[in-house]
Amino acid sequence: MRIVELTEAAKKDLLNSLLKRSPNNYGQYEDMVADILKRVKEEKDAALFDYTSQFDKCQITKETIRVTEEEFEEALGQMDEEFLNVMRRSAKNIEEYHKKQKRNSWFDAKEDGTILGQKITPIDTVGVYVPGGKAAYPSSTLMNIIPAKVAGVNRIIMLTPPGKDGKVNPGTLAAARIAGVDEVYKAGGAQAIGAMAYGTQSVPKVDKIVGPGNIFVALAKKAVYGYVSIDSIAGPSEILVLADETANPKYIAADLLSQAEHDELASAILITTDKSQAEKVSKWVDTFTKQLERKEIIEKSIENYGYILVAESLAEAIEAANEIASEHLEILTKDPFSVMTKIRHAGAIFLGEYSSEPLGDYFAGPNHVLPTNGTAKFFSPLNVDDFMKKSSIISYSESALSKIHKDIELFAKKEGLTAHANSIKVRFEENE
């Protein structure tokens, strides 16, 4: 891996390089996505089936688009029982963690006759997109469906592309069943996002779409925002390790490569205060890369977006980590909890050498759907709140309103909205 001194210029170049990976910078595909969405909106099932034939080389009809109970049972029968039990234990951890996030409606009644509050209700229908291209990710299926179940979403549907044989990846189906999905449909890509956003004869319109996908899925989600809500527009995976001289270089290298293997655009960065640590990690990266199955992907990822930055001080390293605002941040320092208190921007923070990033991907419980491309500065991990909506509750008695009605009338008149003022005024004209 390249080793670079952490300077302002190096940091600026790094940030510019990382931003190039954002889905917002792939405008050349927007027209193609817009055409797909337009056709799905107008032609509905006919367009969806045609695109499935084109892109997935699979013939789907209104009779076969929805996964049947028999297909679920077939998928479960193909799975290794030990793996199923691991997924069940993972699902339990995810559920227990997200249950702690759930909030309740509240009301505040005062003696003057004022009642204010907030009513919290789940979204009615949520659509979960699950990729099925280069690899299938049952873990993402669990992470997207379970928080929606905890929130109390009434109807959770899932769309995922079928294979050429017309079947869905068995691991994906098994995870969906464990997580508690209500319906699964065979469709992928931008056309699947369009089907959920607009509705077709076979696929119901949803209120919110969540889940990762390729650049076409990301751009489609961006385009349909407003017709429906979305979780986020996710970019390629990324990890940042913040380490001092006490960290184990072998562990650091292994953790960096855990993200580099996702795809060629994945980013793996180490910021360390120790030059010799940087050199040791670089050697371990080379050693591990030669041994790993996704060697070619890792090499391209490291070549394009792999960095080891050497900082003069821990304070400088922490500030750089905050500017990068990584999806995953590992803190491998002498006192990781102290460093953590100084971190302002990160999707998920892993503390200590036995809290490596894959722990969060698969098992610990916190959601692994995280903000990327620096959006951790203003976005949060997927959580139960993403599947809830809030309504304000306002109730005033006559006596409570009478004490402040002139204030409201004055405010409305100053804004030139006399009908607003009159709506309040008419209630007290007879008394005055």
Question: Any overview of this molecule?
Answer:
This protein has helices spanning 8-19, 30-43, 45-56, 69-78, 81-99, 138-151, 170-179, 189-198, 215-224, 249-260, 275-291, 295-305, 314-324, 336-340, 357-362, 398-402, 405-414, 418-425; strands at 3-5, 106-109, 114-122, 125-129, 155-160, 183-186, 208-210, 229-230, 238-243, 267-272, 306-310, 328-332, 348-351, 388-396. By secondary structure, it is of the alpha/beta class. Helix 3 (45-56) runs antiparallel to helix 8 (189-198), helix 8 packs parallel to helix 9 (215-224) and helix 17 (405-414) packs antiparallel against helix 18. The protein is 45% helix and 16% strand. The strands form 3 sheets. The protein has a 6-stranded parallel β-sheet, with helices on both faces. The relative contact order is 0.15.
Short description:
This protein has helices at residues 8-19, 30-43, 45-56, 69-78, 81-99, 138-151, 170-179, 189-198, 215-224, 249-260, 275-291, 295-305, 314-324, 336-340, 357-362, 398-402, 405-414, 418-425, and strands at residues 3-5, 106-109, 114-122, 125-129, 155-160, 183-186, 208-210, 229-230, 238-243, 267-272, 306-310, 328-332, 348-351, 388-396. With 432 residues, the chain is α/β, with parallel strands linked by helices.
